[in-house]
Design brief:
Elements: E1 3-6, E2 9-14, E3 17-22, H1 25-34, H2 45-51, H3 61-75, H4 77-101, H5 107-139
Antiparallel strand pairs: 1-2, 2-3
Helix pairs in contact: 3-5, 4-5
Length: 145
């Protein structure tokens, strides 16, 4: 492994590809704030194949920013908190239906059903996000990464 070092920023070869490594937060800040136009983040083709070329970190610029904001908004604590009333309603409904049967229930199987329903409910929200992502992907040419 050849390493040419310039303080906290150095060039090396990893897996046969030349790359610039940043060894501290200050170096990263320096590069990203003052010289970001000189660098293009790249990833091994194997990683791109494994994750898919549409993955968020394979993109840059406006497209990356829009997708990141969409994903962050969907996974924010505020968004997750909004799910709590929905989950509570479903659990209370399930409890009421169990009581109304007047029979002994198998809690393991019943809780699996509740979990599946909640999963499908959250999944439907994620599908909505995927539809939004696809509409944004169609909005931008494939060479944005």
């Amino acid at each position: 492994m050849i390493i040419i070092r310039y303080g906290e920023i150095f060039k090396t070869y990893i897996l046969g590809c030349q790359c610039v490594m940043l060894a501290s937060p200050e170096a990263a800040r320096f590069v990203l704030v003052t010289h970001s136009h000189l660098f293009k983040p790249t990833y091994p083709k194997s990683k791109e194949k494994l994750i898919g070329s549409s993955a968020l970190f394979f993109h840059q610029g406006d497209y990356h920013t829009r997708i990141r904001k969409l994903v962050q908004t969907s996974l924010s604590p505020e968004s997750i908190k909004k799910l709590i009333p929905h989950i509570e309603t479903q659990v209370i409904s399930s409890l009421d239906s169990w009581v109304s049967t007047g029979q002994v229930i198998n809690a393991f199987h019943e809780l699996k059903k509740v979990r599946l329903f909640l999963f499908l409910s959250v999944l439907s929200r994620l599908i909505y996000i995927v539809i939004l992502l696809r509409s944004l992907t169609n909005e931008y040419p494939k060479d944005t990464h």
